[in-house]
Amino acid sequence: MSPFLPWLKLAACAALIGFAGPRLTRYGDIIARRTGLSRSWIGLVLLSTATSLPELVTGISAVTVAGAPDIAIGDALGACIFNLAILVVLDALHRDEPMYRRIEQGHILTAGFGVILIGFVGALVLLSRETPGHRLFHVSAYTPVIVVLYVVAMRAAYVYERRAAGALPPISGSEPGTTLREAVLQYAAAAAVIFAAGAWLPFVGTELADAMGWRTSFVGTLFVAASTTLPELVVTVSAVRIGAIDMAVANLLGSNLFDVLIVAVDDVAFADGPLLAAVSPVHAVSAFAAVIMSAIFIVGLLYRPETRLRGTIGWVSVSLLMVYLLSAYAIYLHGH
Question: Where are the transmembrane segments (predicted)?
């Protein structure tokens, strides 16, 4: 097989996902204004779910049809660290002052739950190979715990938003003629495009690994995860352009929570036994890298640094970028 064909397919998937991203932001913001919900809540629930659809479809397809569990887990955990790396882009787009001095400190709650969920999965990646007998039928006995933790996280975020977040003012200038029903339909159409492109990605990732002679864990963590995270990147940039930075950050952190839930869904779909017992232990590197990056984000949000490197990004963003690059290099060296 020509090595160029998988790259073309990957580019096609990325183009479809990138096209639908701005529409998610546009109509998600309209839904927020029409319903009176906060942008942070819309980003945490509505946008993060829609932008994580590629990871969901990719994971299910990888474990059921493509037979590539490493791509499924690499995509889910790789998307977590890629989402946190997007914060560097978000910080760079704010040339007037560091991003961490503008966003709400309520994001600490979501980031903290991200540390719990991702760290739990990282530990399971290491432990499941040693104790594969802990299962309910073909599903890991720990998978229900992941689901419960996710529900608790979303419930806590909902309660916090009701206490702290205020409603957005009604639409006055942009999109004055768009009704709530029209916004929901347009939002669903954009989500459908992302869903279709995501279903194709695991097969493209497998072809790319074969054509280039790369390990599937590396391809899943880097290339497939980068492609399935394109909606988060596009939505982030689009949200900044309309002045909804908190919606952008909430989307990234909420996507991390949903990506961990996808691991539980993939485990149910994987018929050959507990999923985490069948994947490379190197995926724990991605999980723990995401935990470290989440902790760096929390420190930055509490400390609110003022200094920037030549007016571009601050030390928090530099630290996030370094952890991401080191984790990608480690997975390339030691992946299966």
Answer: 6-24, 44-65, 71-94, 106-127, 139-158, 184-205, 217-240, 247-265, 285-303, 315-333
